[in-house]
Design goal:
Largest sheet of chain B: 6 strands, mixed
Shape of chain A: elongated
Number of strands of chain A: 12
Radius of gyration of chain A: 36 Å
Strand content of chain B: 5-15%
Structural class of chain B: alpha/beta
Largest sheet of chain A: 6 strands, mixed
Oligomer: heterodimer
Radius of gyration of chain B: 35 Å
Distance between the termini of chain B: 76 Å
Helix content of chain A: 55-70%
Number of helices of chain B: 23
Chain lengths: 585, 629
């Protein structure tokens, strides 16, 4: 709640004025029974027609003032709620962007998206409702009680007993149902999960003829959900009857007490009517409140979910610029572009190390190949260089300075990253190239496209660099996407280029051309190539062979082929021993 | 009583990868849940055609409600009793007040009798009210339970064509979000509309019984509030539309950027992205404020009309009280009726839009339920037992869409134990063949026979379980590793499971998981790597060892070393089993008995390695460009 209230602070004026005007409106509403009492006690009792007309005009005036107040309140409430949620969305979006890969892994993207969208919308409704009604209802309830006191203190004591009793009922039911609501939501989760699963896995389910089992499992979750909903429903169903009983018993009591007081000449008949009216007003408000509470409960739950995201602090502290400059100077001209010193990495929540004891020194301009089996830690190695994850052991140095001492931008500006999954964004090819460097010229983009073997197909596209890319790059083939992501990284003119298994969708010839172009490009460019194909890394200056997170060997191709059994196995699985011809498409 | 509990979670789980669903903010789902804002108004005005559609939907809804008619009857009865009793209380109160005239003029005996009666009436009302709420809950939740069940049953028998052609997000949102929205509306409809309508007629009757003149005032003024509400709703419609589209735009950006957060960070584009986000966010703020404010004027406006009604009753009532037309007690009673009478109008103007929204949602679910299912199985369908592995395709023609013919006059005859390799460039439609063999799709002409029987004459289950299928797209269900492995053979023994896992080279990593074979994996394999998932899919097939195999790039995500080991296991498994292999590996292709060469969805060449090379056609080209250097 801390954050949410913080955002409301920006709308202090609105969040105070909205309930205030709402209360003013309620106040005028409270006067109505009083005016009616006057009509009965004075107008009817004296047969004074002009007085009655006058009082009715007063009532209309009260109505108009009430309308004005109410509209003002609605406006301020809407403004505060919408403004607050806009700011909240901005803050949450920017906060999520500051999270590191570890935190994103932990949270999962889909839940972040729903928190950004539907949860914030719920909160917006909640704030709007609270500002409009939550103040109004208690105000009417207590206001009615105070008005009752002005009529007759003794009779008003009935209100003093009734109101706490009503609060107990309303809040008691709220407390009882809240945990049940959570259970219902979990039940819904299961139903949803099952439905999704049967769509994504439709082929497998039908291939194994699992439909009957799936229906049975779905029915189980579905029935459980219904049972939970019914349970909540049964308890919630008590709210209205219980409040109805309490209020009407109070009315009965009021009549009896009123009868005694009127008989004793202490109050008038009109006063009794007014008292009964006030009690009825309380009932009306409570019914509204009961409906409101569901919204509030939901908004609270959503606010809690948003709050959870805010509570996650980015787990990395980046070096500040000044300290970095000092360290940079102290490092002098470093001998190595990248250095791993006894590096280990355990992903958060994982039981075992994904990488351990890695020592590697890479001179500027060298090409490093990284090869190994599924889950051997290839990607872990290269993710440490741009500090997507922090090494849990040892240290990683780029240009002689620990990556932890770099300001984030300084570090990442030096690195061109091409990830396994080729991701492009909606927009033109040019827009996507600009991600590499915002001020890149067309010539520079074309140069990068040339190197990435992408120029040819870009030029055939209508509009060339201005050709549109739809969401997810669906209008491009896998190979085209991959080449564009490589070009994007090259536009940046990085010192270090990292290719994380990023040529997998290219055919062999293009892959080879790409590597040749990279070699010819700039002799200072340090390149890391992660690949499953031995052919892609054959000619690297150093090859790191990983096996189950451990280094199985580091060296040149010939050395490894002579002395590293893991490398031999990989190599010969792809090249026939005799002629060394690649046997994989 | 509204016991809506749904939205938060249902939306939370709305699949993220479905732009069609999320972009569609206008549908009132997914991103839309503004109870207060009057979003529902967007649905309140529609054409005549939609009205007929609504009537059809309503008829369907009634069909689902019918089994619960005793509860409906009970609910209506309770509503009537509740309303009658609720309206009776003001009469009693008024009567009592007429006995409390002034000092010394109080008739205690009748007052006490009335008070006693009030207590009894109130207790009865509360009971019937509760009974009504409970029955309504029961009807609503059971109806949606039934609808969900039927929707899910339909999903299980929908032709693959439908599922392939629709985004998962859309279907899921129908089963979850739409059903929920509908249940809300149904519940509200039952409780508020019933009692509302009954209250209006009840109060009218009571009021007429007291004074016709004053009743006329009430009846004439009240509908004004409905007109006001309708007027505002009409005016705000376009504002809500704008809000929905803007919101859809924003969701699309959020989906794209948060979905690829790692790339955004890798390129340090956070500020640029935030800037784009803020631009939309600001626009959203402006149009949301407009929409919410203008729609929220409905309530104050109608309440103002109501206060006019109240005043009107006060005026005419007081004047006629002076002339002795009615008593003060009757006036008090009348005033409270005026309030009770106008309240349903207020609510109904809200409920009607809510109901329309609910109906629109129901229509989307019924659309799914009414979808044409796959061809039902023939009554005399044969259970394919111990297929020998003969597969023959005769004059097969097939296309996904009638306009675009894909496969024409395709003949193929596979003897038991033969290996068929399917090759061709990416996207050439290799999976089409699998779709036909597994009868995920039916041929449009010709026939496919397995063991001599036309596959349309066999039961789907027996046909499909005769094939062991490993696809490139790995799929595992949420559950334990064991449950996933034994999918094709529920009664497998521990030894068999471990043996299968070992031959798929999955045993060693499974053993290292926290609970071994009983480790629960999340939806779609959860935290397992792509390669590990593929190993599990292979083990799953290795356990049930069906007579025929379909391997669609089954080892694409596995590293080459493990792949070679698995290949050996595959080779052993394929011995004596007819297998169809979508292949990229030269050795597999070369040793295949039959090679099908596919291009642009069609089978263009067929034969073995040597004959195809000799033909010098597409295959020869492919071979020379890709495999030889």
């Amino acid at each position: 709640m801390k954050h949410l209230l913080g955002f409301l602070k920006n709308y202090k004026k609105e969040s105070i004025l909205a309930p205030l005007f709402k209360m003013l409106e309620a106040l005028f509403e409270l006067f109505v029974p009083l005016v009616m009492k006057k009509i009965i006690d004075v107008g009817i009792a004296n047969g004074d027609r002009p007085y009655i007309v006058k009082m009715c005009l007063v009532m209309v005036t009260l109505g108009i003032i009430g309308l004005t107040c109410s509209l003002t309140a609605q406006y301020f409430a809407a403004k505060a709620a919408v403004g607050c949620s806009t700011k909240l969305r901005h803050a949450l979006f920017s906060h999520i962007q500051s999270l590191t890969w570890s935190e994103i892994d932990e949270l999962g993207t889909s839940t972040l998206i729903t928190r950004m969208t539907s949860d914030i919308n719920q909160v917006q409704s909640g704030v709007n409702m609270v500002l409009r009604l939550f103040m109004r209802s208690p105000f009417i309830v207590f206001g009615a009680m105070i008005m009752a006191f002005t009529i007759d203190v003794k009779a008003a004591l009935i209100f003093v007993v009734t109101i706490p009793l009503l609060s107990v009922v309303v809040f008691g039911i709220m407390m009882l149902t809240m945990p049940l609501f959570k259970k219902v939501q979990k039940g819904l989760d299961r139903v949803l999960g099952k439905t999704r699963e049967n769509l994504t896995g439709v082929r497998v389910i039908r291939a194994f003829a699992q439909e009957p089992q799936e229906i049975e499992e779905f029915e189980e979750s579905n029935t459980l959900l219904t049972r939970l909903q019914m349970r909540v429903g049964r308890i919630s169903a008590l709210t209205n009857p219980l409040t109805y009983i309490i209020v009407n018993l109070a009315i009965a009591l009021l009549i009896w007490v009123g009868a005694l007081r009127v008989d004793a000449g202490l109050i008038t008949q009109g006063a009794v009517v007014a008292l009964v009216n006030y009690m009825s007003q309380i009932l009306v408000e409570l019914v509204k409140l009961a409906n409101l509470i569901v919204t509030i409960t939901k908004a609270l739950a959503c606010a809690g979910r948003i709050e959870k995201v805010f509570e996650i602090q980015p787990g990395m502290v980046y070096g500040d610029a000044a300290a970095y400059t000092d360290k940079r100077a102290a490092a002098g001209t470093p001998e190595y572009a990248v250095e791993f010193r006894n590096v280990g990495l355990t992903y958060r929540g994982a039981g075992a190390e994904s990488l351990s004891g890695l020592n590697l020194k890479v001179k500027p301009g060298e090409t490093v190949g990284i090869i190994g089996g599924t889950g051997s830690g290839k990607s872990s190695v290269i993710n440490l260089i741009p500090r997507y994850y922090d090494a849990t052991e040892g240290e990683v140095l780029v240009n002689g300075v620990n990556v932890k001492d770099y300001p984030m931008e300084t570090l990442r500006d030096r690195i061109g990253m091409v990830m396994q999954k080729a991701v492009l964004f909606t927009g033109t090819i040019r827009d996507n190239m600009k991600w590499g460097r915002g001020d890149a010229s067309d010539e520079e983009m074309y140069a990068a496209l040339d190197t990435a073997q992408a120029r040819e197909f870009v030029e055939t596209k209508e509009g060339g660099l201005d050709a549109k890319i739809v969401q997810g790059g669906k209008n491009l083939s896998g190979g085209q996407k991959q080449r564009l992501t490589i070009a994007r990284a090259l536009v940046r003119r990085p010192d270090i280029l990292i290719l994380d298994d990023s040529a997998s969708a290219l055919d062999y010839a293009t892959d080879a051309k790409l590597r040749r172009a990279l070699r010819e490009m700039d002799d200072r460019l340090t390149v890391f190539i992660v690949s499953q194909r031995a052919a892609s890394i054959l000619h690297a200056d150093q090859i790191v062979v990983l096996d189950d997170g451990r280094v199985a060997g580091i060296g040149k191709h010939e050395e490894l082929l002579a002395g590293c059994s893991v490398y031999q196995e990989i190599y010969y699985s792809q090249f026939k021993k005799e002629d060394g011809r690649e046997a994989r498409a | 009583m509204k016991t809506s509990n749904k939205t938060a979670v249902s939306r939370e789980n709305a699949p993220s990868g479905s732009p069609s669903n999320q972009g569609d903010g206008a549908s009132g789902r997914g991103t839309e849940n503004q109870k207060t804002s009057g979003q529902k108004h967007t649905r309140s005005y529609h054409s005549q055609g939609q009205k007929n559609e609504n009537r059809d939907t309503l008829r369907q809804v009634l069909r689902y409600i019918r089994p619960y008619w005793p509860f409906v009857a009970l609910s209506i009865l309770c509503a009537a009793v509740t309303v009658a009793l609720t309206l009776y209380v003001p009469i009693l109160t008024g009567d009592a007040i007429d006995y409390i005239i002034a000092e010394g003029l109080v008739a205690f005996t009748p007052v006490l009798a009335i008070v006693k009666r009030i207590v009894i009436v109130v207790l009865c009302t509360a009971f019937t009210q509760w009974l009504m709420n409970v029955s309504n809950n029961r009807i609503a939740y059971h109806v949606i339970h039934d609808i969900r069940r039927e929707a899910f049953h339909k999903i299980e028998i929908l032709p693959l064509k439908y599922i392939d052609g629709h985004s998962y997000g859309d279907i899921v949102s129908r089963v979850i979000a739409d059903v929920d929205q509908f249940s809300d509306g149904l519940l509200m409809g039952f409780t508020q509309l019933f009692t509302g309508v009954i209250t209006i007629f009840g109060t009218l009757l009571f009021m007429i019984s007291i004074s016709g003149k004053i009743t006329l005032v009430v009846v004439l003024v009240t509908p004004v509030s409905l007109f006001v509400a309708a007027f505002i709703a009409k005016k705000t419609y376009s504002m809500f539309q704008l809000q929905s589209t803007t919101r859809g735009e924003q969701t699309a950006l959020i989906d794209e950027m948060l979905g690829n957060q790692k790339v955004v960070q890798a390129f340090g584009q956070e500020d640029e992205v935030l800037e784009r986000f803020d631009e939309i966010n600001d626009r959203l703020e402006k149009c949301s404020l407009k929409a919410i404010f203008f729609s929220s004027t409905t309530n104050p406006a109608t309440r103002f009309v109501n206060s006019l009604v109240y005043t009107g009753v006060g005026l005419t009532g007081a004047l006629s009280a002076i002339s002795g037309g009615i008593s003060v007690g009757q006036l008090s009673c009348f005033l409270s009726y005026a309030n009770q009478y106008t309240k349903p109008f207020n609510e109904i103007s809200g409920v009607v839009t809510e109901l329309q929204n609910a109906l629109a949602c129901a229509a989307r679910i019924f659309e799914l339920i009414a979808e044409e299912p796959q061809l039902p199985e023939a009554a005399d369908a044969v259970v394919l037992e111990a297929a020998d592995g003969t597969v023959s395709l005769q004059n097969v023609a097939f296309s996904y869409t009638p306009e675009q013919k894909l496969i024409r006059d395709f003949n193929l005859s596979v003897r038991p134990g033969q290996r068929v390799a399917i090759v061709g460039p990416t996207g050439c439609g290799k999976t089409t063949v699998i779709n036909l063999l597994m009868r995920f799709y039916d041929v449009s002409d010709g026939s496919i026979r397995v063991s001599g029987t036309d596959i349309r004459q066999t039961t789907r289950a027996s046909l499909r379980t005769s094939f062991g299928m490993v696809l490139q797209e790995t799929w595992l269900k949420a559950g334990t590793i064991r449950e996933n492995l034994t999918m094709g053979k529920p009664d497998a023994s521990e030894e068999e499971i471990i043996a299968a896992a070992k031959s798929a080279h999955a045993h060693s990593f499974i053993k290292r998981l926290p609970q071994g074979y009983d480790t629960v994996i999340g939806e779609d394999g959860g935290s397992l790597s792509q390669g590990q998932k593929q190993l599990l899919c292979i083990a799953r097939v290795m356990l049930c060892l069906p007579p025929m195999l379909i391997l669609d790039e089954a080892t694409s995500s596995i590293d080459t070393r493990t792949e070679i080991k698995i290949q050996n296991a595959f080779a052993k498994m394929m011995e004596g089993r007819t297998s169809f292999i979508v292949a990229h590996r030269l050795s597999t292709i070369q040793t295949a008995d039959i090679i099908l060469v596919m291009k642009d969805g069609n089978i263009i060449e067929q034969g073995n390695h040597e004959t195809l090379l000799a033909q010098g056609g597409f295959y020869a080209n492919l071979y020379n460009s890709q495999f030889a250097r």
